[in-house]
Specification:
- By secondary structure, the chain is mainly beta.
- The chain is built from four helices and twelve strands.
- The longest helix is centred in the middle third of the chain and has 12 residues.
């Protein structure tokens, strides 16, 4: 167990363009991860393109480095695919990390995503329920809609594209379960592939889109996270929001 140091976000060895969105006094913080940045290093040499540019201990799920005040650790509480941008949570306290991970496991953390998809949903508000299969091997994750793992999400249309962009739609996604690649697969199943998805997307349309706009990123963004949690005998509230990247609106014009 470790206590969070005062001003624990000061001097963090943050990766390229990673910023602090919110922090509370007991050691919980939200960072804004850009697309293309790894949640943590996967192999030797990955540190420069990770959330923090220091060593990561897989077993304990924490970053570790030497600071002027001594050894430091920062626990990673959730992950985003490297291609996905937005809110990601960390903790400077081991006991707090355990408490918040418990909330993630028991679906007590509310998350909101925005995505730009090819196509238009049949209704402006929908609840998506699927049975998924998740295959994890060789460091790769592949998810399909032919399985037995329940997955549920709420979808709302936010904005439709104009003119040449009329085949694109900005949607809000609220996962009620937390399966690997859930949102990407659920969108693809409904013929609403997320723009720039190189695994489950529409590859010809991705190529045409990249040529027309110059954008090659995955248009999936973790916009907001909020929840209540118990720690040190108190109920606390935590909320963080990562501004929607400008390109999500620009590609609808």
């Amino acid at each position: 167990m470790s206590a969070a140091p005062a001003n624990f976000c000061a001097g963090l060895p943050l990766g390229k363009d990673v910023t602090v969105l919110a922090a509370d006094p007991v050691g919980l913080a939200a960072l804004n991860k850009p697309a293309g940045v790894l949640s943590h290093p996967n192999e030797a040499g990955d540190e420069p393109r990770s959330l923090l540019t220091v060593r990561y201990e897989r077993e304990g799920e924490f970053f570790t480095w030497e600071a002027a005040e001594g050894p430091r650790r920062l626990w990673l509480l959730n992950r985003l695919d490297s291609a996905t941008s937005g809110v990601i949570l960390v903790s400077a306290d081991e006991a707090l990390a355990t408490a918040v991970r418990h909330h993630f496991r028991h679906k007590r953390v509310h998350k909101v995503y925005n995505a730009v998809v090819f196509g238009r949903p049949q209704a402006p508000i929908q609840v998506w329920r699927d049975l998924l299969a998740v295959d994890k091997r060789g460091g790769q994750i592949r998810t399909s809609v032919r399985g037995h793992i329940p997955a549920e999400s709420r979808m709302s249309v936010l904005r439709s594209g104009l003119g040449a962009a009329s085949t694109r739609t900005l949607i809000k996604l609220e996962p009620l379960t937390g399966r690997s690649h859930q949102l990407r697969v659920q969108c693809a199943k409904r013929r609403l592939p997320i723009v720039g998805d190189q695994t489950y997307g529409d590859f010809p349309r991705n190529r045409e889109f990249a040529k027309a706009t110059g954008e090659k990123r995955l248009f999936l963004h973790s916009l907001e996270t909020h929840f209540d949690y118990e720690f040190e005998g108190r109920t606390r509230h935590f909320a963080a929001k990562a501004p929607l990247p400008a390109e999500f609106v620009e590609v609808l014009r």
